């Protein structure tokens, strides 16, 4: 009887963590983040440099770049350079999630145009941050003009 009870308890204990585990596998989370960063947010349009033909320089993917366009009307707060976001070198993961959910930088200021103030849900923000963090930090390639 004690053996059966022990086996039953062990069976419950060993299956509970599996049932309670995060249903999103790391690969699925990274794939979703990549889809949101590259396919929906189109982050590379500003945060990746281009060559003389206008093609992305993939060796410097999301490592920062000069903004390739200017506003049609004068805008004194316009950001002429997009910072590197591969590895999210300027934010912790939690700061970046909050930034993508609330549209405010860690210091409470709004992003400078042309960066939109996103209002993502937490799941999408976490996926994007996981993908960007997975790219690792690298030196920025864009110098201030």
From TrEMBL:
One MF term in the entry's GO annotations: electron transfer activity
The UniProt record lists the keyword Heme: yes
Record bears the keyword Cell membrane: no
Highest taxon listed in the record's lineage: Bacteria
Record's signal peptide: 1-20
Keywords: Heme, Iron, Metal-binding, Signal
Pfam families referenced in this protein's UniProt entry, alphabetically: Cytochrom_C
Domain Cytochrome c, residue spans: 28-136
InterPro entries listed in its UniProt record: Cyt_c-like_dom, Cyt_c-like_dom_sf
Stated name of the protein: C-type cytochrome
Organism: Oleiharenicola lentus
